[in-house]
Amino acid sequence: MTSGDGDGDGLRRSVALLRAFAVEQSEPARFYGALASDSVRTVLRYAPLAGAVVLDVGAGPGEFARAFVGAGARYVAVDADPDALSPVAAPGAHALVARGERLPVRTGGVDVAFSSNVFEHVRRPAALGDELVRVTRPGGLVVVSYTNWLSPWGGHETSPFHYLGGRRAIRLYRRRYGHLPKNRVGENLFRVSVADGLTWARRQPQARLLDARPRYYPGWARPLLAVPGLREVATWNLLLVLRRA
């Protein structure tokens, strides 16, 4: 595995991301802007973006389009929900309505397949991962990150009630706020572990795992993934970087 370490990969970066995470609800533009910029820097550790075709599956808000286009990429946002694609309005950005598990993209058609915080929202995350690999050209990059179920944010807005069980978390959230949560386990949120992601990446026959790490932590936190149990609770968000064979 390449380390991907360097400037901007230390504790200062982690603190900045956590501060942005704290204002996700109150200042979403600040949060998503910070996350999008960090995503671009992450990809640039492993591959150039100038002129590259980037497929963002489960695309985030418009901040991601602007960040990738600003780095010189040709950006294509993909989401099954047309409403989720409406903010993608950066010059040079394009949108495609499709499910990640069945992408209408030719094999080897993109330079970078990117997916942030989508694995936990599909019933078959490995199928989504396989599609990301399929549409990436030989030598291209596949970048996946997701929130694992047993992390403190695994239940998303129902956290930390998810530690009491997914269905109970929904009931407790509704009792507290008077309405159902957006993310409901078994419907649009699923229990995906760190082990699940690592197993998929390591067994992927058409790509080589370059890096695996807790996404929001400094690079030196990689050894955490070698500790079963602890990694499931402490990782928060798993980042996987693969090179297409």
Folded structure, characterized:
By secondary structure, the chain is of the alpha/beta class. It has helices spanning 11-21, 28-44, 62-70, 82-85, 125-135, 166-177, 194-203, 230-234, and strands at residues 53-57, 74-79, 93-97, 110-116, 136-146, 207-214, 238-244. Mean pLDDT is 92; it is low at 1-7. It folds into two domains: 11-148 and 192-244, Vaccinia Virus protein VP39 (Rossmann fold); 153-183, no CATH class. Helix 1 (11-21) runs antiparallel to helix 2 (28-44) and helix 2 runs parallel beside helix 3 (62-70). The chain has a seven-stranded mixed sheet with strand order 3-2-1-4-5-7-6, with helices on both faces.
Which descriptors would you attach to this protein?
245 residues; 2 domains; Rossmann fold; globular; alpha/beta
